Amino acid sequence: MDRKILSLLQEDASLSLDQIADRVGASKTPVWNRIRKLREAGVIRRQVAILDPEALGLEACFFVLIRTSEHDKDWAARFLKALRDRPEVIEAHRLAGDIDYILKVQVKNARAYDRFYQSLIGEVKIHNVTALLSMEEIKATSALPIPEAGR
Questions:
Q1: So where are the chain's domains?
Q2: CATH class of 54-133
Q3: Which residues of 6-24 are buried (b: 16+ CB within 10 A; e: fewer)?
Q4: Residue-wise pLDDT tens for the chain (151 aa)?
Q5: Is rRNA-binding among the key words of this record (predicted)?
Q6: Chain-centre distance of CA 69, in angstroms?
Q7: Domain 2-40 belongs to what topology?
C-alpha cells in the first residue's frame, strides 16, 4: 500500500485523502496513518507545487560545470553559501571525476546568466566554469522510481 500511496502522491500531491484511499482500495484511516508514518520516517520530505519556468519568464536553463583548485573548508563554506543565496540555482551537485560541481541554473536569458556568473565569480574563486545552454528539455520529473518490495 505504501508504494501505491507514494506513486499517487508523486504524480499529484493535491489528491484528497478520499481520492487516495479510493485508488489504493482502502479506507481513509489506514491511508492517513500510512501517510503520517511515511512523513515521520522522512520518506515524504515535503509537498510542493511545481511551477512552469517559461510561464514565469525563466526561459533559459544552463548546466554549469565547475572546476576548482580550492578544496579547503573555508572555500567550500563560502561556495555553498553563495549557491544557497542564489535562487537561480535550482540544483547543485558535488561530483566525482574531472568536474567538481554541476549546477542547474534557471534564468530569463543569457544576459541574466552572465549577471549570475559575474556575481558568483566575484564572491568565490573558481578555476574553470563551463556553461551549457539547454536547447530542449526532453524529460524532467521529480518522481523517484519506487523499488519493488524486497529490493
A1: 2-40, 54-133
A2: alpha beta
A3: bebbeeeeeeeeeebbeeb
A4: 999 999 999 999 999 999 999 999 999 999 999 999 999 999 999 999 999 999 999 999 999 999 999 889 999 999 999 999 999 999 999 999 999 999 999 999 999 999 999 999 999 999 999 999 999 999 999 999 998 876 5
A5: no
A6: 26
A7: Arc Repressor Mutant, subunit A (1.10.10)
